[in-house]
Design brief:
five-stranded mixed sheet; single chain; 54% helix; globular; 2 domains; Beta Polymerase, domain 2; alpha+beta; 11 helices
């Protein structure tokens, strides 16, 4: 078997793909890009070679990024915010039987680890905004908007045990931040308050302390085995 190139892996072996970014968050405007994210299952025989298949692929379309299934699961188990949100996109474009089972495992990936990863990621983004403020006199308002959205999403996840992407009624106030209509001092105060609300929510969260790694690993092993047994992939 000839090792497929990255484009072929995404084209022929995607098990799940969705739209992310502002369109999934309910924050799209006329000039919004369409960000696509996906998961592909590299045929098992490719892992028997010295040169392994890629863990991720950028493209082939603009604003498109895909993870190999195992890498995707690893990141989701670590509560990576971008990956967890990908699993909960309301805008699914492609899904097969493997993708359906992956989506059925959403709850297995969720845990209180999200408190650390969501807040830590937001803190890193806030530092970048503060650096922009010092250097340019203003932050990147679009990034400030998404930081507020992320902190709100993380807080609500910890409170309810469910990850919701669409911002709903908060759309207009968030877009006002994007347009630079909200003073930075107010945005900064919101960030601080939301981070504190995340901290308060984790202690009584309905989420498990750790994700269900065994359940996810069982899925991965069964999927790899089934791939190895397909005649066209051996």
């Amino acid at each position: 078997m000839i090792t497929p190139d990255p484009v072929a892996l995404v084209r022929d072996h995607t098990v799940y793909s969705c739209v992310m970014g502002s369109r999934a968050f309910g924050l799209a405007t006329e000039d919004s890009d369409t960000d696509r994210r996906g998961v592909f299952l590299a045929p098992t025989p490719l892992f028997w070679r010295f040169d392994k298949p890629p863990t991720h692929v950028e493209g082939p379309a603009q604003e498109q990024f895909s993870w190999e299934l195992e890498r995707f699961c690893e990141l989701a188990l670590r509560a990576n915010p971008n990956v967890l949100e990908c699993l909960h996109s309301p805008l699914v474009e492609r899904v097969d039987a493997v993708g359906d089972e992956l989506l059925s495992l959403r709850e297995a990936f969720l845990s209180r680890l999200a408190h650390r990863t969501f807040v830590r990621y937001a803190l890193g983004q806030r530092r970048k905004l503060e650096a922009d403020l010092r250097q340019y006199g203003a932050p990147r308002w679009k990034h400030a908007m998404h930081l507020l959205r992320l902190l709100t999403s993380g807080r609500d996840l910890l409170r309810t045990g469910e990850l919701t992407l669409d911002v709903g009624p908060a759309r207009e106030e968030l877009l006002a931040v994007k347009r630079g209509e909200v003073p930075w001092s107010e945005v900064e105060a919101r960030m601080t308050r939301l981070a504190e609300e995340n901290d308060a929510a984790v202690a009584s969260s309905p989420l498990a302390a750790e994700p269900d790694r065994a359940r996810v690993e069982d899925f991965l092993i069964r999927t790899r085995r089934a791939s190895a047994l397909r005649p066209e992939e051996s």
